[in-house]
Write a structure and sequence with these properties.
alpha/beta; five-stranded mixed beta sheet; 16 helices; 26 strands
Length: 530
Amino acid sequence: MKEKITVCGPPSFEIPNISFGQYIVDRLRQSPLHIVQVDAKTGEILTNYEVLDKSIKLSKYLEQKGIKVGDTVAISSDNILNYFIAVFGTIYRGAAIAPMNPDYLEDEIKRCCRISRPRLIFVSLKTRDKIFHATKSLPWKIELIQLETLDSILSKFDNNNYKNNFYQNFQPESVKKPKEQEIVILYSSGTTGLPKGVMLSHHNALTISYTFRSRQFREFQDKSIDLIFLPFYHGYGFAMMMSIITMGTTAVVMKSFEPELFCRAIEKFKVNTLPLVPPIMIFLAKNPIVSKYDFRSLKEIICGAAPLSREVREAVKSRFPWAKIRTGYGMTELSVAVCLSDRNSQKSETIGNLTSGVCCKVIDPETSKSLKAYETGELCFKGDHVMLGYRDDPEATGQTIDHHGWLHTGDLGYFDHDGDLFIVGRLKELIKSKGYQIAPAEIENILLSHPDVNDAAVIGKYDATGDQVPVGFVVKKPQSDVTAEQLRKFVDDKVSIQKHLKGGVKFIDAIPKSPAGKILRLQLQLNSKL
């Protein structure tokens, strides 16, 4: 019998040929009194009706501002209830939404803006001033709207007239080609290089929503309560919230992870589903605070964004034996998620079977030959989840998606005879820290800009928690007396916290490179015994 060299999930979902905006409106209208969001700290709530009411009003306001199909609107905010009001109001206009990390500093903000070229940016109190200072020097006008003042703006609409004319009859802007029109631009470093704008289409958004509603991902829906502290700008958090709001479940929202609030919220709101990342799994496994709270409402813990060790998984399982622990896999370029392990799987390290409409093959990185079951190589995916491409970067798009439509992930893995996938390592050079992708080239460019640096390279090393942190290797200029601490601070002052050189700076005589000038990172890692 011929060995299988491609594994596929079930047939594609029967997705309607509509805009994602129309899908949102249709879903929210079904249960107007359903509580869809709760602020974990204050208890403030939003119902489906309130989300729909506010987002439609905002859409009309954006129409007055001239926002139209093909425009881009950015958003830079921590997790607050009005965040997805801004997202939905933008989507109804047929414009693309571009979430930015609220911790980005000036150069990072400018880089994102040059990629997405937003006409307007929604900001929060936390981000307002730095967004203003970063964008005022850009060569096009960008208007800022603060999310905390959104209700004041929307209150200017005549509510009686509004309800009669818009609530029941409102139609978002139509999108002629949902498979070709971008809806969101998420920032990712892809397989290498500086951050790029991942363009996902209306069809991609519908696909991931149908995926998250499927029985593979959700055994129970209507009564599920999810605790969300994942940042909304990140693909994982963004996709989870979009799906929760449109599938009829409830999200208890945290601005960021706070141990006591996290535990208290699970107990108080009787949370059923926890979408997490590995560092929080370590917290659940080891932190004594957890024992003070009642977690018996938990039914599923889903871990994604980075590999989860068997030891941590088993420790969490022993602490919460009544909850199913599942691991998923995906990437921003694949509409966030393409695999999720089975609830009753006995294979502790698998990332599970493929979801509907996705195929996977494993190739030899050197020859591109397709490999058979249990043979390790680069994972490549094809199907409804594959992105449109990188915004205004056809070269990087071509390097990631080949001419047959296969997206090359840069991750090393294999599949078994059941079609379950396993990740064993990373072909690409990115550093993954707490679910964030860090491009070494970005930090290297900053180090190289220092007057006392001749050459530099950055790689990841594992810290005591099993997470990766960036470490810099520097060739100093002759007679320079610059210190490692000075260089570390030089970088840290220019980038957001996840990119800080927490692994420190080490001085070496030369950066190992290939004849073509490529940094030999593996050799650097072996030589330094990281």
